[in-house]
C-alpha cells in the first residue's frame, strides 16, 4: 500500500466570538489557508485532486458545500473539486483521515484536508432551530433524554469524581500553557496572518492571561444548579480555519518537497450518546491496536478540550503521561471553531513533535452524538 505524508500544515489565528475574524465569510477565511499552502510549498493548485473540508453547522454562510466555495474563493481553477464533511467536532480530523485513506488507496495523489467554522456568523445550535435531528426512534431508544454535551460533561465529571476545583485547575493550566506557547513562538511557523482592516491578525485572541482556579471559582455553573461545568472550564465559541497538504512520499519527492510527517494510523469509534464525549477513550484503544504501538510510545497527545472532564477522563482511562497531554494548551484557552478544530489541533501536534523531536503523536476529538476520531502521525 502507498504511504500518505503531510507536506505542510497551516492555520489561521483563532478568533474569539464576535472578535477580529467575525466579519470574514467562511469561504474567504478558508481561502486564506488554502492560498498559504500553495504559496509556502509551490504546489500548483491545478494538480490538487480534491479539497476535503470539515464544517459542522452547514447553514447560512456555511451552507451548500463550503469546501467547494473555499476553492473558488481562493481563485483556483474551476476543475478543482471540494467536498464538505460533517463528523461534528471531528469534521476536519475526519477530512485528514479521509484524505490520507484516498492517497494510500491510490485514488488521489494530492489532497488538501482541513476545515472551518465561523461561529460568530453561524451560531452554535443554529441548525437545530428548524427541527429535531434525532427523530422519534432515537429518542425512544434513550427514553427521551435531551442530548446535551454540557450535561454529558457533568455526567463524566460525576462518574470519575472530578471536583470543581480539579476542573478549574486544569482550565487555568490550559491558559498558562497556551500563553507560554505563544510567547515562546511555538505557533509562529504555521499560523497564517489574516489581514483585517489593514492590520495583520496573528495571535489566538481567546487567551485570558493570569487565569487562576481561584478566579474561575466565581463563575456560575452552566448546565446544572450545583454542577461543576461553566464557561471557564469549557471550550470557547470561536472562528478559525486550518489546512494540511497530503500526498504520497513519492509525489513529494517528484515535486522536490520534504514531508514533515507520515500518516501512521487512524480509527473512529462510537460511544454512549448520552454522556456523548467519551468516544476518545475507545477510539484511542482502537487506533493503538491498529498501529501496534503502546500508549508509552506516543510522545505527545492532543485531546480536544471540549470540556475539562473530557481530557481528564481520557488520561485516567488510558494511563497516558499527563505531562504529554495538551502541552501547548487547548480549546479552553484559545477556542474551538468546530469544523476547523481537527485541522488546527493537527498543526499544533506537528509543531510540538518538531520542536521536541518526537517520533509519534496522537490526536483525538470527542464529537456530538458520541463518536470520536483518533489519529497517529509519525514525524519524518
Question: How would you describe this structure to a colleague?
Answer:
The protein is α+β, with helices and mostly antiparallel strands. 35% of the residues lie in helices and 19% in strands. It contains twelve helices and twelve strands. Strand 11 and strand 12 form a beta hairpin.
Q: How does the SSE layout of this entry go?
A:
Blueprint: E1 5-11, E2 15-16, H1 26-41, E3 50-54, H2 66-73, E4 82-85, H3 91-104, E5 110-118, H4 135-141, H5 149-160, H6 164-183, E6 194-196, E7 199-201, H7 213-216, E8 238-247, H8 249-254, E9 261-270, H9 280-291, E10 300-303, H10 309-318, H11 331-334, H12 338-356, E11 360-367, E12 371-379
Parallel strand pairs: 3-4, 3-5, 10-11
Antiparallel strand pairs: 1-8, 1-9, 2-8, 5-8, 6-7, 9-12, 11-12
Helix pairs in contact: 1-2, 3-12, 9-10
Count of β-strands:
12
What's the overall average pLDDT, rounded?
Answer: 96
How would you sum up the global shape? globular
Q: What's the helix count?
A: 12
The low-confidence parts are none
- Helicity level: 25-40%
Give the structural class: alpha+beta
Termini separation comes to 18 Å
Radius of gyration: 19 Å
Order of helices and strands: EEHEHEHEHHHEEHEHEHEHHHEE
Strand content: 15-25%
- Main sheet record: 10 strands, mixed
